[in-house]
Inverse folding.
């Protein structure tokens, strides 16, 4: 007997795991029949989830936290028991702008690109026509990564530059139309902009934070509790999909699946490039290899580290200009659910960390960490500016934040 489970998603490469779990039969092996519901914006993905049109969703991680805290709408507690991927986004600028701030044919150094961009940002601000960037949602990792990078380079978001919301499938259109000067979005939409000659990729967000959390599997907390057995079955199916996703021999097949009209409805060649960690930075160039651009399995990448949710909360406070609240921090810590992830995968061959939080940005070389089962070696996870986030000192981290002042 199979049980139906509906999952909302946007046409992005990092929606791969639910799609592959369905198509390859991993969900069926767990007794689940997945119905995948495609949307065009994060707002509609969230609406379908909250009103019960879907059971779960592929979702930008900060949106799950913002919804739980009631930012922008009445609070509804969401749970995220599985991380669908880390990073996988890029910053693409109009090509004339990119030529002034980044080296030709290579990704730039974040600090150097930011310093060059600051000069232009100040020129444009003085001329009364500030630079404008498009991000996919106010509560998205794209927004926070872009703001973190800009502010660390001396460019004040909302004061020196403007940031507006553009749904992912329209990011290339907005750049091509000149509505924005740059976009921060996931694949394949940077590559679509490049192929049209509308922009040039200057940075990958993995250069801003090497192991930044990106999408999660989100659901209403009540659904997770009521359907706990099915949720754990789904986690096992997604974990199998993640393992298969990184198999080089499966790349061509998986790209063809994702390219189908019912999923991404995109050029299979662009998807193959993203899956292979290759980026075409500018039209007419040669793709470069950027290791771990799409990061979705190693190093317990799917484990919902509570410390990553807390870092996102720190950025929410920073850019919403709201004070720290210990009660809210406790609610945030409950959004990511490592306990459910552990329960689902205990006794399998999936490595499980011994801890549920860690100091983010502290690793500059590989380190073997303690585990509940299996072996895990974490690699470099640094922020580009060398800052470290200790989840036990969130209030202190915010107090030391000179960039936001």
């Amino acid at each position: 007997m199979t049980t139906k489970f509906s999952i909302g998603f946007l046409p992005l490469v990092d929606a791969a795991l639910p799609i592959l779990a369905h198509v390859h039969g991993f969900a069926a092996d767990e007794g689940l029949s997945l119905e995948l519901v495609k949307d065009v914006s994060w707002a509609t993905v969230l609406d379908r989830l909250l009103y019960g049109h879907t059971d779960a969703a592929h979702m930008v991680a900060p949106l799950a936290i913002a919804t739980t805290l009631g930012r922008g709408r009445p609070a509804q507690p969401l749970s995220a028991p599985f991380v669908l991927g880390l990073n996988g986004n890029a910053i693409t600028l109009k090509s004339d702008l990119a030529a002034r701030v980044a080296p030709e044919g290579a990704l730039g150094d974040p600090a150097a690109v930011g310093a060059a961009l600051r000069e232009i940002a100040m020129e444009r601000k003085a001329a009364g026509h500030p630079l404008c960037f498009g991000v996919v949602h106010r509560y998205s990792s794209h927004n926070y990564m872009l703001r973190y990078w800009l502010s660390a380079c001396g460019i004040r978001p909302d004061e020196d530059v403007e940031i507006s919301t553009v749904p992912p499938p329209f990011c290339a259109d907005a750049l091509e139309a000149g509505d924005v000067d740059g976009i921060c979005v996931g694949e394949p939409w940077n590559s679509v902009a490049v192929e049209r000659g509308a922009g040039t990729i200057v940075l990958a967000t993995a250069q801003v934070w090497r192991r930044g959390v990106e999408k999660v599997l989100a659901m209403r907390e009540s659904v997770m509790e009521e359907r706990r057995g099915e949720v754990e079955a789904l986690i096992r199916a997604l974990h199998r999909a993640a393992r298969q996703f990184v198999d080089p021999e499966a790349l061509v097949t998986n790209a063809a699946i994702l390219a189908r009209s019912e999923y991404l409805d995109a050029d299979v060649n662009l998807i193959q490039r993203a899956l292979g960690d290759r980026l075409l930075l500018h039209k007419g160039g040669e793709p470069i290899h950027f290791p771990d651009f799409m990061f979705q399995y190693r190093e317990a990448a799917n484990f919902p580290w509570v410390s990553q949710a807390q870092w996102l909360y720190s950025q929410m406070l920073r850019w919403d200009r709201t004070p720290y609240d210990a009660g809210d921090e406790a609610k945030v810590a409950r959004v990511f659910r490592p306990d459910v992830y552990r329960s689902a995968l205990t006794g399998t061959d999936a490595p499980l960390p011994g801890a549920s939080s860690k100091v983010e940005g502290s690793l500059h070389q590989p380190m073997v960490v303690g585990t509940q089962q299996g072996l895990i070696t974490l690699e470099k996870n640094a922020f580009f500016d060398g800052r470290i986030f200790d989840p036990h000192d969130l209030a202190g981290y915010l107090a030391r934040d000179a960039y936001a002042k």
User: Anything to note?
Assistant: The chain is about 40% helix and 20% strand. The longest helix spans residues 228-245. The chain has a mean pLDDT of 96. The first strand starts at residue 3 and ends at 9.
